[in-house]
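We examine the record.

___
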Amino acid sequence: MRDLPPLSALRAFEAAARHLSFKKAADELAVTPTAISHQVRQLEAWLGLRLFERHVRRVVLTQEGRELFPSMREGFDTLSRGIEALRTPAPQEVLTLSSTVAFTSKWLVPRVPAFRAACPGLDLRLHASDEAVDLRAGSVDLAIRYGRGVPEGLRSELLFQDRFAPVCSPRLGVRGVGDLGRHPLIHFEWRRVDEATPTWSRWFASAGRRYQAPGGELRFSDESHAIQAAIAGQGIAMVSLVLVAEELVSGALVKPFGPELEGFAYRLVHLDTPRHAERLGPIREWLLAEAKKLGPRK
């Protein structure tokens, strides 16, 4: 067991020795100079030593006081640092996740609260861009890529395979394919179009019907805008079923008929190094678990 004098006496001595003034020590500790003097005398009595020479307007440390002061100062500095470390939370690691604008808006942002609950030791920064970022540059930790392939040197894991189908607001009263001509067709304009791109033209071909839009057409360069137009009842949209999964569950949108078209794959990608695998473990597991809720990845 430590045999120590009262902590208040040690504090009074350390402050008085640092300032070489009972008054300044009293101001720092929010007590009176008389209280400082009393505490110092209590410490001197406990030690059986004089620590200060007292003069009319100043105090001077004795030899014994000069020997005691460094250890007192170091001890209180160490104690202060330890308490400050407890009061100030350590900065959390920030991970940057990049994905397309529509996927970030429609799928990632609504799940941020779930991420914070599942990964309390991490902060997430979302980077929304339809341009594929260079993960080797270091500004982005991992990405959700949408397309056919992934560059070499990156680790890739399938989240889910996208599918497309006509969707619309239930307010339109669409029941079957025959209702197509009564409403505008809503298009998302793809940057590159080929035979695998899930467009209205491909859908009509898959349905064995001639392409026509007697109700007119609405075209959007942003997929999330096309989805919002469909929710608002402005027409029938050919959009990602992944991005409108919540709206289909809530009833804000309906999928009145098929067929469905296979879209591209959503893949989680990051640098293929042990360091990245360890750092990204928690967010990777969370993303895979969230993707699994949508059903088989195919």
